[in-house]
Amino acid sequence: MAVVVIGGGILFGRSVMALGATGALYASIVDQPGPFGLKARIFALDISAAAIVTLLASLAGGIPWLLGPLIVVMGFSTGMLVAYGRRAVGLGVAAVLALLFGMATHKAPFSVQLVHMAIFAGGGIAYALIALMLTWLLDDRTRQLYLGEALLAFSRYVVAKAALYDRAVKQKDALAGLVNAHADLVDRLQAARDMIFSGHRTERRARWIASLLALLDAFDTVLSSDADIETLRGSPHHHLMRRLHALTANLGEDIEGLGLGFLLPARRTNLPDRADQIKAIGDEIARIAKISEGAEPLDVFAFRATWHKLGQTSARLTRLAEVLAGHRPPIPISDDLDLQRFMKIESASPQILKAQLNYASPVFRYALRLSLAMTTGYALTLIFPQYIHGGWVMLTTALIMRANYSTTRRRRDDRVLGNLAGCIVTMLLVRFLSGDALSACVVVAIGVSHAFGAVNYRVTAFAACISALLQLHAIAPLSQPLLFERIFDTLLGAGLAWGFSYVFPAWEWRNVPRYIKGLMIADRDYAIQALTREPSDQAIRLARKRAHDMAATLCTTVQRLIDEPNLDKRAFVALNELLAANYLLASDLASMRVLFRRRGAELEPVSTEELLAQSRQMVTATFALGGDPNAAPNALSRRSFEQQLESPSAAYSLRRRLVHIDRASERVAALAASALKETA
Fold first, then answer.
1. CB-based burial label for 589 (10 Å; 0-12, 13-18, 19+)
2. Mean pLDDT taken over the chain
3. How far apart are CA 147 and CA 207, in angstroms?
4. Is 329 helix (H, G, I), strand (E, B) or coil?
5. Read out DSSP for 83-98?
6. What CA–CA distance (Å, rounded) separates 218 from 632?
7. Which among 33, 97, 430, 537 would be 20 to 30 A from 467, CA to CA?
């Protein structure tokens, strides 16, 4: 933006620069990290569409019978773009902004309008060319940032896990925090996959691919450490729980340091050696086992298993650090591992849009709501032309209203507060700063709005308000009192967005049964792979990813449901219990790979395969009943396998884990059935 604004001002003057900067602003809205080819296509679509919309809106010249239909079409089209995912939302926002600026321009002959459109498009093209050049130059850095963000999310997950070993924290609360951290980690891992697995594989990228795979393996290992958490929390050896809590918290801090060191080369630090801390815990477990009377207590066995898993996690983190730093060559990727299968496919096929053209589609209903809300805002402009500015009302409505009620409600509050502050600051800037300084403020405001888009929408609304008002001021100087008019327009637009959320509603709780059944299918497929002694690397990784993805989808949906009206609180209880139980099942399944890797050589092949086949059959049958509310068993607790251990052999560990998985799957299926009842 700075290059376009300064360069345009030097070459063509301030008035031309203002119009070109507007085109650059539209292009900046869709400027998100991504592959070079995809970004080029999005820029081309955004600039051409925004230029055409601006021209049509300016040619309409405020004539209601021309501008009204354009607003209806724009509102509906913007809503339907949601079907193509997050990137397409930016295209819709840019189109609405184009409509706003087109409505704000003064009447002029058609030839002049064409010149304005060319200047406008030129600013967007200049921005796109610069952005694509920076994308090419900084491609490796962008990939590095995504991997670093995944590392930091992993650290937050491990820190949340430490709360499970803190007896001062209720297990229910600790699991709720852990499930949320897990959902965030799953989202960050997918974003990292999409960036790091794509494109030409250089030596550096090959190392980052290996690092991401090592991170996933470390995640799987540390996830498995929760398999015996209920036994551990019921143990009288509280001092061991405190030691496990300290070790897990330290591992989380180590991962955070690793992530920050990877992102900021000046902060590179060596991963601390936790060998003494891990050995001390092992020695204490051995001491307790030695003084136990008779057979080894079950909780001591559980402590030892958890200690082994955390020790393996520490070793995997050391390997991850060495691969990241280039001190260890990356492990060759197996031939049967197709990394493209783990990426999110972004398609622009018209069939995606066609599939949404029915009243049952939430996207179609959202498009209808948005179109009606924007049209109503324009109608109010015609009724009260002295008091309401239709463009600002429609922009506020489009920016606040989203396909789900929860996001709309939260953005409503953030937008109102952000715009209130933005109007006050803009009024002061216009009063005391010169034109060049205001242009600089536009550049800074756009950068801030982008930086906080996924972090704090209130800050984004504040900065976006400043940039939009200053752009309007550059095109048509604001001659009327700015503060009260724009605040009133903001409140009206926010009210329209919120009020029309109840028109043709598509409540998210209606999607919950579909997500629950999808989770049961994903759990079943993952269990089948986890209960196979030597599954293919591709099959188990894909099954594990789908199970984690479905759990994360259900988790984020439940977080949004709390804002929806008329939903029974018992449904939240049932869904949260299901998420907690499903997380513990995932921990049990992850434990199988750890067991096979650590003690697989001790297992007798024939009897082991018989046990695994029986367990696969039982788990498959259990999840087949997961969608039937009448199939829910009465007892939902995770029962212990035995109270005393005669021999902690590998075969015993396998049998114990299989019983855990069988009963954990029963609990998940039962809670799924209960949740389906509550949300029916």
1. buried
2. 86
3. 11
4. coil
5. GG-HHHHHHHHHHHHH
6. 34
7. 33
Q: How far apart are CA 489 and CA 494, in angstroms?
A: 8
CA distance 470 to 226: 54
Sign, CA torsion 71/409/354/357? negative
Q: Which of 77-91, 102-116, 379-393, 633-647 has the highest mean pLDDT?
A: 77-91
Supply angle C-alpha 665, 668, 669, rounded to 5. 85
| Higher pLDDT among residues 308 and 66, named by residue | 308
CA distance linking residue 553 with residue 562, whole number of Å: 15
> Is there a contact between 33 and 195 (Cβ–Cβ < 8 Å)?
yes
Torsion of CA 166, 172, 178, 182, to 10 degrees: 160
Average pLDDT over residues 349-376: 91
Task: State residue 115 phi and psi, 5-degree precision.
Answer: -65, -45
pLDDT band at 655 (very low <50, low <70, confident <90, very high): confident
Please report how many Cα atoms fall inside a 13 Å half-sphere around the Cα of residue 223, on the Cβ side: 27
Which tens digit of pLDDT belongs to each residue from 183-203? 999 999 999 999 998 888 888
What pLDDT shows up at residue 6? 84
Q: Please tell me the chain's helix, strand, coil percentages from 3-state DSSP, rounded to the nearest 5.
A: 80, 0, 20
What's the CA gap between 172 and 348, in Å, rounded? Answer: 43
Helical ranges in 452-481 per DSSP H: 457-475
Residue 514 structure tokens: 């579909």
Closest among 316, 339, 313 to 328, alpha carbons compared: 316
Angle at which helices 569-599 and 171-196 pack, to 10 degrees?
Answer: 70
Residue 640 and residue 633: Cα distance in Å, rounded? 17
**3-state per-residue secondary structure call for 215-237:** HHHHHHHHHHCCCCHHHHHCCCC
| Chain segment 443-481, per-residue pLDDT in tens | 899 899 988 987 899 999 999 888 878 877 776 665 545
Q: Between vectors from CA 168 to CA 164 and to CA 173, what angle results, nearest 5°?
A: 50
Query: What's the first-to-final CA gap in the chain, in angstroms?
Result: 50
- Burial 216-246, CB ≥16 within 10 A → b, else e: bbbbbbbbbbbbbbbbbbebebeebbebbbe
Angle between helices 238-263 and 139-162 (to 10 degrees): 170
Q: Is 305 helix (H, G, I), strand (E, B) or coil?
A: helix
Tens-digit pLDDT profile for residues 566-616: 777 788 888 999 999 999 999 999 999 988 988 888 888 888 899 899 999
pLDDT at 640 over 50: no
Confidence of residue 633 (pLDDT cuts 50, 70, 90): very low
Q: What does the chain come to in residues? A: 680
118-166 pLDDT per residue, tens: 888 899 999 999 999 999 999 999 999 999 999 999 999 999 999 999 9
Q: How far is CA 218 from CA 287, 528, 589, 653, in A?
A: 29, 21, 15, 21
How far apart (Å, rounded) are the C-alpha atoms in residues 220 and 217?
5
Residue 316 in tokens: 């995997």
Token duo for residue 286: 């051995």
Query: How many helices, marked H, and strands, marked E, lie in the chain?
Result: 25, 2
Segment 526-553 shows an average pLDDT of 93
280-309 CB burial, b ≥16 within 10 A, e <16: ebeebbeebbeeeeeebbbbbbbbbbbbbb
